[in-house]
Predict the 3D structure of the following.
Amino acid sequence: MDIYLPIANLPVNMLVIIGLGGIVGLLSGMFGVGGGFLTTPLLIFYGIPPTVAAASAATQVTGASVSGVFAHLSRGTVDLRMGAVLVAGGVVGAVIGAGLFSVLQSVGQTDTVIAILYVLLLGSIGGLMAWESVQALVRRKRGLAAPPAKRRHHPLVTALPMRWRFYKSGLYISPLAPLLLGMATGILTMLLGVGGGFVMVPAMIYLLGMQTQVVVGTSLFQILFVTMATTLVHSVTTKAVDLVLALLLLVGSVTGAQLGTRISRTVRPEYLRIILAFIVLVVAIRMALGLGWRPDEIYTLEPG
């Protein structure tokens, strides 16, 4: 069943796009990640222009984040003060990312840069996840206890001036740290169409030293508003947001997330992490190979 994507300027099979959204939603429900970091590569593999894939994926992440944010707000697991600082940095980062996006479009290197960034990010994150998962499995097999978790700021965060108290996060740190973290995530969201949770959550725990109870909710709060800002900026500057594509992805992801949540209850966390690490590394390797292989179509059209 084909449907025409007005911004991507090509017909696609509607069921395939919904299926791709379902795969991302399934992974989101199984592993507790936003899944946005896999949406853009999967769309690119299917033939969607990278610019449209990144912009539309950000829009889909916005819709998918709404229910999660409201759920965490009702439980009181969102640090609104920390979230506001992260959102402020994310909006600034989205504007900076828009400038970088325009520069890359003007020199015709958008596709290449998006692919390289994905290879670096997914390769490094997948490698770290695989290493930690293998260590956890080895400890479990040998009957060893996991090392106690340590919650502390990174030394660079401690050195920053002008400290604020973030009571729900249990922190007394400079707001410059979450502001810069939000800016970095905003740039990534603008360039890659990711929610940024796969970068944000580890950074909030290991760099800022936040209490784990509020990390996911605060991350989702930031993702919701930053992806909204990113969608708006993309709509005004690159004009690459394809709402038809985003809606089809959202339909699939909502359905897939429900199934993924049920599966996650029956599988050990160690196995879930190593499966996710494998998937991430496979996508990174596929994108890396795509940088070296001659494509089937040498020329691609980007929305002007």
About this structure: The chain has a mean pLDDT of 78. The chain has one domain: 7-292. Residues 7-292 form one domain. The first strand starts at residue 2 and ends at 5.
